[in-house]
Amino acid sequence: MTTISPVEVEEVRGVLRMYSDGSIVRSTKPSFDVPIDDDGSVVWKDVVFDSSNNLSLRLYKPVSASTSAKKLPIFYYIHGGGFYIGSRSWPNCQNYCFRLASQLQAIIISPDYRLAPENRLPAALEDGYSAIKWLQEQAASENPDTWLTDVANFEQVFISGDSAGGNIAHNLAVRFGAEAAQLKPVHVRGYILLAPFFGGTVRSKSEAEGPVEAFLNLELIDRFWRLSIPEEATTDHPLVNPFGPESKDLEPVSLAPILVVVGGSDLLKDRAKYYAEKLREFGKRVEYVEFEGMQHGFFTINPNSEDSDKLMQVIKHFMLVQWSG
């Protein structure tokens, strides 16, 4: 009897490979070699937040937090990767969280979530919700993790996401609403969507005309959606397209303030801009910032660049306005 070996049918950046027999092989390392830039000014540790799905989050805080009389704001950073690659432990993610903790003087929480195609949407969104509920449990617990609770201000929480993480942040904003009463004593002040990953069956201009050599090109965008959305669904699915034909009407939904950031050369630019403009039409508090000439993920690819520095200032200003308002 002849045995036919499975053949590779999908491959993404050398990180994920799918075979004709349905098997999947994942690398624990990203496709790019980035050294960890740890100068000792930030400490971190991992915590399991969902044992049933073996999911952890990584906590970061400035070393100076232990001697400060002022408790620090909490900033969630939900990583990107098209919903089926990426991890809190990847060096690019860790380096950006170091920088966020240091520059924002904040507690950074970076959760993992289940990845497609083994776990298609809405799995990642449910995991994002669980990661926020974990914080509520800590805030209300009689025996919390004091590494966190001794220095954290649960009244000043911001939820941020990068690319696919930005999509998760949007869906959390809709789910929790402006007041997020179900999260007390945690108070979410605002959401920061960094190059949010939205889709739709009708191509945007920036998608259709974007260069094939872009860091996130149209072929990758289509592949990410094909393997992450529910089977038989299209990219007009409500979790993918906030304004699709079957999506929830967001006009009557009460939303916390939202900051939307995108690179001017990112193929996702037009969708992010439309998202911000549409919410503004509905009377929502939305700020839109575009970085001319920047590609998708510029702030994690080169976190020490001039534009990344400017973005950090934009985020700091947004946070200051929300917690002083």
Automatic annotation (TrEMBL):
Pfam families: Abhydrolase_3. One of its GO terms (molecular function) is hydrolase activity. The active site is at S163. Residues 76-299 form the Alpha/beta hydrolase fold-3 domain. PANTHER family: ARYLACETAMIDE DEACETYLASE, OS07G0162900 PROTEIN. This is Alpha/beta hydrolase fold-3 domain-containing protein. It comes from Papaver somniferum.
